[in-house]
Design goal:
Largest sheet of chain B: none
Distance between the termini of chain A: 25 Å
Number of domains of chain A: 1
Strand content of chain A: 5-15%
Structural class of chain B: mainly alpha
Pfam families (chain B): CcmB
Oligomer: heterodimer
Distance between the termini of chain B: 30 Å
Number of helices of chain B: 8
Largest sheet of chain A: 5 strands, parallel
Number of domains of chain B: 1
Shape of chain A: globular
Keywords (chain B): Cell inner membrane, Cell membrane, Cytochrome c-type biogenesis, Membrane, Transmembrane, Transmembrane helix, Transport
Order of helices and strands of chain A: EHEEHEHHHEHEE
Largest interface: A-B, 36 and 34 residues
Main location (chain B): membrane
CATH class of chain A: Alpha Beta
Protein name (chain B): Heme exporter protein B
Radius of gyration of chain A: 17 Å
Strand order of the largest sheet of chain A: 4-5-6-1-7
Helix content of chain A: 25-40%
InterPro entries (chain B): Cyt_c_biogenesis_CcmB, Cyt_c_CcmB_bac
Chain lengths: ~180, ~230
């Protein structure tokens, strides 16, 4: 599902409420018919959230960032798998330099490696295409399709037009209110 | 790719990350220690190098200096994680946030508190502290500095979302440090008089035990509020 709307309409706020970071003024967020507040840690197992702030540490290397994220979320992976994924995302030779020396697009790729390394059902992505080049966008979209084919759900905000790319796309348009 | 890690793995992961970061920016470890040293050397210059006077004031000075230098690194505990979004990732992990918080506080103590404990004998010598009080100084610092990290982290968690949270954090945290200061200096004073100081130590230990259990929960609630 794509969430659209002008700047300031509340796209990010909505995603943060659904992810459970912010509290709604009114109403509840249900996941599998259960209020996420009742069992947040259980909900978190099915959740992958990548926001504006991607959670990539500037001082650590790309490889360290990925392994840290994996352990924090309870996933395990092999060194060779992580290196080959980083290579696939165009970060060959940059795996072991501090992330702060990488470009904005490369830093975002370091965060997006997580999309290949999780088995969460629900992906919540805030502007995932920001700073990515065309090849990166295409790679991300094909990964989205794989996730959807496996029965996963994606909730994202973007200003890109995705109607032609995904057959099952639903759009939620938010309106700016004063 | 399965959810397979234990709580212990999570603790180690977060602890190791913070230590790695601290060792990559060594100033973070060295600065509080140098600050501690400078504050302690300022006192003899200001009040005069009379050995008796210094020895009398040493427990208070060492502890006030320890308290202030702990404050230096506190602001950093959650700041970077808040800025780059790692905090959100910790909240959105299937593990309790309080466990990650406990690891972060432990890492803060290892880089800020532990060096002070290790250097304490040298500083005690500078202040002409009575030799029988050295044990008490070490013990109170050993029990007291983790307590300072726990209490301080609550303030850091509450103010991490603010632009200039540092001063507000000091105002929040320093009053809460007073009980620690009172019992720690009292223990050292008692030891100078060659009396038993286990009572004060027991109270400090009790405070640490309560903080160990309650502070991570308080800190994670504070962080959730700051992130929302």
């Amino acid at each position: 599902m794509q969430i659209e709307g002008p700047n300031g309409a509340g796209k990010t706020s909505l995603l943060r409420i659904i992810a459970g970071f912010s509290q709604p003024d009114d109403g509840n967020v249900l996941f599998n018919m259960r209020n996420i507040k009742e069992d947040y840690d259980g909900y978190a197992q099915s959740l992958l959230f990548i926001g504006h702030k991607t959670g990539v540490n500037q001082q650590l290397t790309a490889y360290e960032n990925v392994t840290h994220w994996l352990s924090v979320h309870g996933y395990t992976s092999t060194e060779s798998e992580i290196y080959s994924l980083l290579g696939k995302l165009g970060l060959v030779g940059l795996e072991d330099v501090p992330v702060r020396t990488l470009s904005a697009g490369q830093q975002r790729r370091v965060a997006l490696v997580r999309l290949w390394l999780n088995d969460a059902k629900l992906w919540i992505l805030d502007e995932p295409f920001t700073a990515l080049d065309k090849k990166g966008v295409a790679m991300l979209q094909s990964r989205f399709q794989q996730h959807l084919d496996k029965g996963g759900a994606i909730l994202l905000t973007t200003h890109q037009d995705l109607t032609d790319t995904f057959a099952s796309l639903q759009t939620l348009a938010l309106e700016y209110r004063h | 790719m399965h959810v397979s890690n234990s709580y212990w793995t999570l603790f180690c992961t977060v602890y190791k990350k913070d230590l790695t970061l601290a060792f990559r920016q060594r100033a973070e470890i060295v600065n509080p220690l140098l600050f501690f040293l400078i504050v302690i050397t300022l006192f003899p210059l200001a009040i005069g190098p009379e050995p008796g006077l210094l020895a009398r004031m040493a427990p208070g000075i060492i502890w006030v200096a320890a308290l202030l230098s702990t404050m230096l690194g506190l602001d950093k505990i959650f700041r970077d994680d808040y800025m780059d979004g790692s905090l959100e990732q910790l909240i959105a992990s299937p593990y309790p946030l309080s466990l990650a918080v406990l690891a972060k506080v432990a890492a803060h103590w290892t880089t800020a508190g532990l060096p002070m404990v290790i250097m304490a004998p040298v500083f005690a010598l500078l202040m002409n502290l009575e030799s029988q009080a050295l044990g008490a100084t070490l013990l109170t610092l050993l029990i007291g500095t983790p307590l300072l990290s726990f209490i301080g982290a609550i303030g850091a968690g509450l103010t991490v979302g603010l632009q200039k949270g540092g001063i507000l954090m000091s105002l929040l945290v320093l009053p809460l440090y007073i009980p620690v200061l009172i019992f720690a200096t009292s223990a050292i004073d008692t030891s100078i008089m060659s009396l038993a100081y286990s009572g004060q130590l027991a109270i400090l230990g009790a405070m640490l035990a309560v903080a160990f259990v309650a502070a991570p929960i308080a800190i994670s609630s504070a962080l959730r509020v700051s992130v929302s």
